[in-house]
Amino acid sequence: MASKSKEKLSEADESYKEELDSLVAELLNLDLTSSQSETILLKLVDHATNDFGNISTIPKALQFLISHKVALDEYYKRYTMTNGEDNYALVLLLELVSFLEAINMSEPAPKGEKKEETEKEETPSFKLLLYKLEANLVAARLLTQINVGPQINGHGRETVEFKDDRYSYKISEKTKELLRKRKVNDWGNEYLTSLSSQIVAYFAMASTRQAYVNYLLGKKFHLNKYGTHKELHKNGNVEKEGKPKNTRQTVVLENNVNLVIEETLKLIEEMTTYWVANGFEFDAIDLLLEVDRIESIREKVSDDHDLVTRVTNYLASISFYGATYNESARILHVTYELLLRNKRYVEAVRIALKLNDHVRVMEVLNSCEDKNVLKQVSLFLNTSNLYINTLATSELAASAAAISKNDAELDETLVYLNRGENRSSLFMSMCKELDILEPKHPSEVFKGYPSKSNLSLNQTLSGVSIDSARDNLSYTFVSAFINCGSSMEKLINPQYRPSAATSTTNAAAELFKPKDGEWVFKHQGYGLMCASASLGLVHLWNLDEGLSAIDKYQYSSDQYVRSGSYAAFGLVSCGVMSEMDPIHGLLTDKLDSTNYLERLGAILGLGFAYGATNRMDLLELLIPLVIDLSSVECSLFSSLALSIMFVGTGNQESSEAILQVLMEYLTSYESYNPTPGVNYKHVRMYLLSLGLLQLCRGELCEPLLEALKVLGPLEKVAVTVVESFAYATSGDVLKIQSLLKNLISSKTAQEEAPAATDKDSMDMDLDVAPTTSSGSINGASGGGTTGSDSASASATSNANTSSGNTNSGNTSSGNANTSTSNNANTSSGNAAQSDVKDDDQERNLEELYGVSVLCIALLSLGENIGSGMLVRLLEHPLQCGTVQERRAVPLAVALVNMSNPAPQIVSLLSKLTHDSDREVSLNAILALGLVGAGTNNSRVSQLFQTIAKHSYRDATLMYVLRVSVGLLFMGKGTLTLSPLHSEGFLLNKVALAGLAVVLFSALDLRSLVCEDFPFLMLFLGMAIRPRWLVTLNTELQVVNVPVRVGASVDTIGTAGKQRRISGFQTHKSPVLIGVGERAELATEDMESLSPYLEGIVLVSNVSS
Known about the structure:
mainly alpha, 4-stranded mixed sheet
């Protein structure tokens, strides 16, 4: 703030300035102990703090007094050195000097004064704070009628304290009254803001932080009544005593750090209490966070509903920006306690879920006495796949038993709502309201696409009809995705209708007999499995009718169809937990089958059905399959199933089993695989399983990180994956920087590596393709490799399909991981063992580059700033990264933008679909499908049509394109893949697990997802959920309520009551809500039991 220019003073201002100058001059000529000094200072303070109540401008008194700041400061120091007696005038002088320090002078100080100030170390820069603290100390001593100035006897030692009657200054009753009326806000809010800034700066110094850490850790400091500092042993004996001085001790002259900290904390308490009580709660929270005292906000917040809402929303939002995981947890704990104290149970359970604290979840359920609110909490828990009756620990089980004892009928209702058994009927009701219940045929989706795009079902070549198993599989996925959850479709099983569904209890007497031309049997190998399993997507959440529709396929004579039906059983119950638990009875017996395909289907079904249920009985059944490497597929997907069941729990038995089998796999791979070298695609999936077990566990993953050292060369890759999952959605900047270092080191490793051989350039799946100097892929080399790869992979797939041996999958999966070129296979067979080790080391680096890019997206997920910066962070790998990095970029972008086709993201992915590297193009097309999943976005659809027009000759590309189109129109525009809910605050771990399996597999999209394991796309079913708002009354009946839906607006931290949505439209529920949108009730006659209008929400009439 600048002082008023002398040249522009009016006559009145000049007169006013002369009056103030004369008062200051008179004060400087008086002794501070005189009554005249107190009178003059009272006048100066009155002038400084009263300027017609206008707080938006600098009072003229301050503009004129600022020139006397140095003189007043010197006046105080002279008094302290000569007399030092406490009096009320001293308090006023200290506060006035402190107040003047809050004003920054625009005129430069004289050279002499500037030099003098620079000679001092830290005290001048904190005069504002120190003089205020000194004023508080003097005022406190005056009120207690004790003068604590040390007296020096003849031996140079301190004597005992003396009362005020030893001095000439006597405190009058009027002065005592003025001292008692002192408030922290006497000098205005702007002064408090400046004071707060200086407090933050003081606590930011290294010396202060260290002293404050000692203070918080409980180190005993003693300040005696003379102002000296003594440090005590634990037994209370004096160890060190401050030097006696012949002048009084002050924080200004001595700058006693411990005394400053103690007095500052008292001042902070006063400031924050005032701020919270007067509408400046955000300033109070910020200051308390800076000094690590956020817990004290709990006593300052009253039970006012609006105040609690503002404080808790602000605390929840800033928890994303905690410097450490523990700091964020502390903020959330305070938020939880405030909400629970004020009986805001839905919001409290939301915070408990963010903390991943199931004990607090049960505490909310036990504390809540409102039956309707308990129903809403149960519905809210189902959105996060948390089931009350499956919580495993003894404390939680006891809490659950306490709930059931209170009200048996209520308990049944809560469990029913928590299991999600009503989701299918509500979804069908919404589809009927929106008039989209009628199923769609894939040909209807592709109707507007170019005729030469090979997207139609009736393809001909020279007038002869052709039938491709891969094309048929893509149509199957399209039909399953677009009719997802509707229990009806027109391609796979068109004869079935829900109304005609009957139970097939006597299945043995009614064995399935395939009809000629039935669609399921127009596939080969794993395609047959995917065709029958895709019925699980069609009947998603509909256990009653879905199990009946799928039942006949488990009796098929084809082993692949039977296996797919087992997976379909699990898909049907994704996010739904039936009281009868039919999936357990249907699938557990199949785990003992001698046919590895049946075991594989049962494993997939159990993984789909029991996500985040912590079922210990299934753990005992699956661990033997995990460690059994006689069937690599069963071992691999058993580990994934276990990690999904115990996602985010860090289950020790599962972690030990997966780590054990991974070590065995790495050491004995050659014993059952004819091709030397490790299959890194399988290794990546094992590491993914370990990462999912540690999802969002933060520092609790440290023991597993230590155990990963046994992996040797793969340690860095393993640590990167596990640690990234442990800190997923945290936005941890340090972790992101470490991942970026992995990417930067890739360029150095490339420069130091020897020139690529012909063998290296011909390997399409894992080896680094030739790059130009700028890091872009050599188009000619990539094109030739693509053709060779497709031909070889197709041959491998056909061999696998025609084989009748149930264990043939082991051989085919092993062959798929070798070089696809015959020349490359010959070269690798003749290579020396040392060359194989060098190749393994290069593959370790390549694997690290790819997963590091995905892990950056994993850390940025759910954090708005991090998600927005992700595109800029990935510019480096796109421009000058390795092939593996560039292939991972579209997948990383898709992960943080699931079902959110923002124009910037669509434009980026659109460019990557035309990349010279065909693998980057494939990944970009899949990423476009994931970004637009369930949105019916017209721009993405138009891009797909353009790609189909120019690339229809590439069979693999068209397969991925068809699947992506199915994702785009998923659920006819009613579903979403986003793992975030509750306005993006909470993470559904099961949904993220399903997405992670698909995305990490897509790092080798052509070979792993399109050929080896096409059923990996079924894992998306775990992430599918309706993007809806359905309103029910307290009797759980659907009611149509006017609702406004618009773009979400961040109003946290803003003044007043701002509108939280913009560009809204008013509809009647049920309504669809996209990513980045928010809903609010458009009527005052109804109120919701949840402040977050998404999913299933209970509403009630407003009580008069």
